[in-house]
Structures are given as structure tokens and as C-alpha cells.
Amino acid sequence: MIYTHLTRDERYQIAIFAKANFNQSEIAKMMDRDKSSISRELRRNRGLRGYRPKQANDKAQERRLACANSPRAADSTWAVVEEKLAEAWSLEQISGHLEASHQPGVSFESLYQYIYADKRVGGTLHKTLRCQKTRKKRSSGRERRGTISHQVSIELRPDIVLERARFGDWEADLVIGAGQKQALVTINERVSRYSIIFHVPFKTAQAVGDALITLLKPFAHCVHTLTTDNG
């Protein structure tokens, strides 16, 4: 079946059928749509007040615009990506599946750009990323804003980081501007090569620390290590 975007009218149909307590399989059959399309639509565009067709359509349009700069891939390919993410597949598994099934491949960077764009418009794809990291409670109430704990020296990085065998190992660097005051904080994920840049007006430990926290916050559940040049 060739994947096509749901229309505004179809979203109103979904809302009517859902309100009438039809299940997803029944809705899909009545609309001549694949069940996965209905499931994905309800999962991605349901708000705090339930599924509302106008808001769902606006949200979908915003997401499409936000993803406009992502490398081109067929809509059917992105549909497969979202389906597998919902099934708790890792991005490594998804990439391998696309290649094995002769579908247009999508790089790690493309996948994360797509997921991050989805997050910016209120999507939940980022919550499906399969990264195992346990958060520890703070041992004291002292102010820690602007500090990055557990920084790892390049010499002490575990072998798995050097092998680029998982997503979540980041490297940070500082590019000093003219006058030695302003700077650009950059972070790079080793597997996907995904990079983000943040401008800081003052080259202080506080400003740089805050920048790193801001940059990594969207990926908080996918940070295994952070290696800095400690400059």
C-alpha cells in the first residue's frame, strides 16, 4: 500500500468514528486506510483534551514544515520509521531493516533530525528512543547549575565509545571568538555525526555549562558519555 498523508477531512472522520467508540481496525476499514496509519495519527496528534481534528491537522502541518529541511525520503519510509520506533526498535535496527527490505536508507543524522523536529512541534517520537540510562537522585540540595558532572577524559573513555557502537556518546568543543570573550559551544554525537552549535556571549564556565545543558536537554535520556577538551 502506498502511504499518503491524511487529509483534513479524513481527520474529522477519524474524530467522529473515535467518538462513536469504533476501534482502530474498524475505523481503518471504513476509511480504506491501513490500521497503522490510524494508530499513528491518534498516537501522534492526540492532545490533552483527546483527539481534536483541527488541532491535529494544524500539528501535522507544523511538523511537516519543521521537517522540510530533513534529507528527502519517501513518506512511506518515515511511516516505517515511526512504526518501528513505536515497537521499541533501536535506530540501528531500523536502519538495518530499511536496508534489508530495499527501502530508501536514512542516515542516523537524518533520523535524529526528524525526531528532534517532531519534538519541537510537540511530538513524542523522542520518548520512544531506546537508550538505557538510569538517573541518580542528587545527594544534596546545593546549586549545580552550569556544571556538567561525570565528564570523561579522552584517555579514560571506555572502548565502546571508540568503537562507535551505540548512540549517546557526545563530544563537546569550544570555539573562541575575536577578543577572547564570545564563543561557540558545539556538541557532536559520535555515531550519527549529529552536531549542534550554541552561541555564548561570555566565555565563562557558567555560560558554557549552561549551553551544554541546553544543547543536551532534548537528548537527556540518550547521553552515555560527554567528552570535552576541558578548555
From TrEMBL:
Signal peptide positions on this chain: none
All residue ranges annotated as the Integrase catalytic domain in the record: 154-231
Cellular compartments per GO CC: cytosol
GO-annotated biological processes: DNA integration; DNA recombination; transposition
Keyword field contains Cell cycle: no
One Gene Ontology term of the molecular function aspect: transposase activity
PROSITE patterns: INTEGRASE
Keywords tagged on the record: DNA recombination
Pfam families hit by this protein: HTH_38 (PF13936)
Name of the featured protein: Integrase catalytic domain-containing protein
Source organism of this protein record: Polaromonas vacuolata
